[in-house]
Design a protein that fits this description.
This protein folds into two domains: 42-217, no CATH class; 318-561, Distorted Sandwich (Beta-galactosidase, Chain A, domain 5), CATH 2.70.98. By secondary structure, the chain is of the alpha+beta class. The longest helix is centred in the N-terminal third of the chain and has 21 residues, at 156-176. Strands 3, 4, 5, 6, 7, 12, 16 and 17 form an eight-stranded antiparallel beta sheet that branches. Helix content is 34%, strand content 22%. Helix 5 (94-101) runs antiparallel to helix 6, helix 9 crosses helix 10 (184-199) and helix 10 (184-199) packs antiparallel against helix 11 (204-221). The protein has helices at 9-22, 25-30, 51-58, 83-91, 94-101, 105-122, 133-145, 147-150, 156-176, 184-199, 204-221, 233-251, 259-274, 293-301, 376-382, 435-438; strands at residues 61-64, 67-70, 318-323, 326-331, 351-355, 358-362, 391-393, 414-421, 424-431, 440-448, 454-463, 476-483, 488-491, 497-501, 507-513, 520-529, 535-546, 552-561. It has 16 helices and 18 strands.
């Protein structure tokens, strides 16, 4: 939350001590042991790869995050690779894409085995990056799932080297994984360790220990209502897919997977589905990029609760209001704490809205989860309050965005009341993001009619007594409603609203109501970034005004014209 400044000094010190230990002769001695002659099974990869990336690999190019490296004589130590590309390459996630392009193992092995051999030649000994616990866990999972691509060689020396490396990484994770702070990196490390315990002979103790670690960790990062502690939907999707990968290890041996994996998936998937609008896409929230429908549909097919959805999130902070063909998703939770994640958004009390398959109101987008990174200025701009459909005071973010990518002071508490009666929804929430700086509390009230054709809202700024405020003065504010791609806007004759035409032809009328201080409604350019990272030009409605005696009360409405 706002007062959390990131990892503590003790956590940073513990990390440095652990890194030193891993380079010590003692740790090197602990890595020694018997090496397996084979794996006990080959689990299925539940997530399909990108055959286009695999095709480029077969042509000699490793392409990820907008960066290309030629595979001829690559050592993976070459300088200049972006961090996102390096993590992907070190994790061996490219095996998934290669398998999608060349499903016949012999053809895929001709491409993969030379790359693996070069990687092992470069990182046979401990390396702080290559052996980073989350990357080692991912490398084990991808290596197990795509073993036919990397263990089909008749060269026994090479095969032995691969199997020995897997066993060594597992021994490293025996000590490194439990030391990690709770988070997604620890989940990857423990899941890889669990799979190693199942698939490498003699790993029964390792399997039980890793499973107990996962059980304790997932209870912390997956919230009771199925939300994720980072509040970024792409992280919930990643954990859901990780559950499927981990469960595939015992299933490859004909065993039933522990109930933990299905139980976690049964919480995650309904919450994710509850955040999807009528187009099937989950919006860009708290640093996350848009999630396209195929990912959710794939999870639904592999989960016993695939058709369920969560409508309100006391813990996740996301609330779904739906009636008729209209769906709203509201962010009514504080931003995630800096120690949990970087790249969070300052979009508290923003909402997205759809009419059938058309997005009417949206946020501008997010970066994490995109195949290629966005330009730095754009990625930073998407995190601002102004890039969300919510109220902004004095052109200032409701939660400060620090230069290091973490969140600073701002929203620490969001109070929410939700009521439903005869199909209509009343929503009332307030946040304290501007209290310390301006002495102002922001409140948003919403009413959605039972037929879904009438959304009424009220945004209120209230003065909050505070001894900390040295300068109390009135401020300009703006309420932004970013329109979905393809939505046109025509101002009304009285300049207090606009007629909005959606791609499917339906028309909505927007109108603002001002108190004594007055205000204006403007139609301005905006943009929306889709799940592929493509920028779409769009429009936004901007309601401008100024507080009077530290107060403001603006009513507004969206009403559908016709059926």
């Amino acid at each position: 939350m706002g007062g959390d400044r990131g990892p503590s000094l003790s956590e940073a010190l513990a990390g440095r001590i652990a890194a030193g230990l891993y380079q010590s002769p003692l740790h090197k001695l602990r890595l020694k042991g018997r090496f397996p002659l084979k794996l006990l099974g080959v689990p299925a990869d539940p997530v399909p790869g990108d055959p286009h990336i695999g095709e480029r690999m077969a042509a000699g190019r490793l392409i990820h995050a907008g960066h290309t490296a030629m595979t001829r004589d690559i050592t993976f130590r070459e300088p200049g690779h972006p961090a996102a590309w390096t993590d992907w390459a070190m994790s061996w996630a490219w095996l998934r894409d290669l398998a999608a392009h060349l499903p016949e193992p012999k053809a895929g092995a001709a491409v993969a085995e030379p790359l693996v051999a070069r990687w092992l030649a470069s990182f046979a000994e401990y390396d702080a990056l290559a052996w980073r616990p989350d990357l080692a866990g991912r490398r084990l999972l991808f290596g197990f799932a795509h073993a036919p691509l990397i263990l089909s060689s008749s060269d026994q020396v090479y095969r032995s080297a691969v199997l020995a490396a897997m066993a060594t990484w597992a021994r490293h994770l025996d000590r490194a994984a439990p030391r990690l702070p709770d988070g997604l990196a620890k989940a990857w490390a423990l899941a890889g360790l669990y799979a190693a315990g199942v698939l490498i002979p003699g790993g029964e103790v390792r399997e039980r220990t890793a499973l107990a670690g996962l059980d304790a960790l997932l209870a912390q990062i997956v919230l009771p209502d199925g939300g994720i502690i980072t509040r970024a939907p792409v992280d919930a999707l990643a954990v859901a897919e990780l559950m499927l990968m981990a469960a595939a290890a015992p299933e490859a041996l004909g065993r039933r997977a522990p109930p933990l994996f299905a139980d976690v998936l049964a919480r995650l998937l309904p919450a994710l589905r509850g955040m999807a609008l009528g187009d099937g896409m989950v919006g860009a929230w708290n640093g996350a990029a848009v999630i396209a429908p195929p990912a959710l549909e794939r999870l639904a097919r592999q989960s016993a609760t695939g058709t369920a959805l969560t409508r309100s999130g006391r813990w996740s902070g996301y609330y779904r209001l739906s009636a008729g063909k209209t769906v709203l998703v509201v962010d009514a939770g504080p931003p995630p704490a800096p120690r949990i994640t970087a790249g969070g958004h300052a979009g508290t009390l923003a909402f997205e809205m759809s009419d059938g398959p058309d997005r009417l109101i949206t946020n501008c987008g997010g970066e994490r989860g995109l195949v290629a990174p966005l330009p730095g200025a754009l990625a930073s701009g998407l995190r601002t309050t102004a890039a969300h459909s919510t109220l902004v005071i004095a052109d200032t973010n409701s939660t400060r965005l620090r230069d290091d990518g973490l969140l600073g002071n701002g929203v620490t508490e969001v109070a929410v009341q939700l009521r439903t009666s005869e199909g209509s929804h009343w929503f009332d929430a307030a946040h304290d993001g501007y209290v310390r700086r301006f002495g102002m509390l922001v409140r948003r009230r919403l009413f959605l009619s039972a037929d879904g054709q009438d959304l009424r809202g009220e945004d209120v700024i209230e003065a909050v007594p505070s001894k900390l405020m040295l300068r109390r003065q009135d401020r300009a504010f703006a309420i932004r409603f970013h329109l979905g791609p393809g939505v046109s806007a025509t101002p009304t004759a009285d300049a207090s609203g606009a007629l909005l035409k959606l791609p499917q032809g339906r028309v909505w009328a927007f109108k603002a109501r001002f108190a004594a201080g007055g205000g204006t409604v403007a139609i301005e350019p905006s943009l929306w970034v889709d799940g592929a990272g493509t920028l779409h030009k769009s429009l936004q409605l901007v309601v401008n005004g100024r507080t009077e005696r530290m107060l403001a009360d603006i009513g507004w409405s969206f009403k559908r014209a016709g059926k």
